[in-house]
Amino acid sequence: MKPLWLGCLITSVALAGYAPTISEPTLYQGMCDASAAVALDSTHFAVANDEDNPLRIYSCEQGSMPLQSFDFSKSLGVDARKPEMDIEGGCWLEDKIFWITSHGRNKDGEYRSSRHFLFATTCKKTAKGFEMKLFGRPYQTLSEDLAREPRFKSFGFAQASQLAPKVPGALNIEGLCATPDKKLLIAFRNPTPNSKALLIPLNNPDQVVLGRKAQFGEPVLLALGGLGIRDIAQWRGQYLLIAGAVAGKGESHLYGWVGGDASPQLFEWSKHIDFNPEAIIVYADDRAPFQLLSDDGARRVGNVQCKDLPDPRQRRFRSYWVNLTETNR
Questions:
Q1: Pick the residue with more confidence: 263 or 18?
Q2: Coil, strand or helix: which one is 212?
Q3: What is the domain extent for residue 42?
Q4: What is the CATH number of the domain that holds 105?
């Protein structure tokens, strides 16, 4: 399948002087904790839920239960006793979708092997829907590789990997994005060295899922108001970033970044919108609006958190379309 970000590299817009206009929400059923998502064509997306492992497929045009789902837990060798993978990032790179888990400990600071995966899938459309399959083999030593890399010594990855993910200085990966030169940007919500958000390029993603050791590029530090990165995506030749606090409290913010040494530009949210943006979806048809998914696991439905509802038909997450409109600045 065509790499979806290629269609978004044709037209570039200036980031300064634009503000987001946000649609009314669309509600999708069957899960609450939207954590990573990719477009599959112009009308469908696949989304991960950080409370369980299936990758679910929805129509972007209307709210519904999932049209399909794919659970690769058994094929990946996930620990059946503690199976939650905590998938937090996904992106297309050429003809494959790469998915990454948090690589952090659970909320109680306990190590779980199931949370240490980088893996790839293929996906093609058929007469019956979509067919998604694993490609290559999962990579499970990324956190050790980061800790052993001399250039990253100041980030303290060895110690960070021992901490619960919302403790300052801990290890928590939440975003993944392809670059035009066929690398992957690994985006960290935690740590935030010197109050900067951290990105580390993975130079050889195709080789990694074929059994080769990870090779990294030079780290990138971005000034996002002391926040880490919740997701990152290519949009019209530039990057969109959702920034959020390490501990998960407070507002999240949307930034645009043209890459390199440029400073990220903050887009102003409407003060009247209450949502928890966790995933960005950019479509291949070069449409101007992009989609934001809200992690609504902690949102109350009556007296119950969404993720604790027993009936999957009651669980839901919200989606918003965002269009960048020109201001008078």
A1: 263
A2: coil
A3: 4-326
A4: 2.120.10
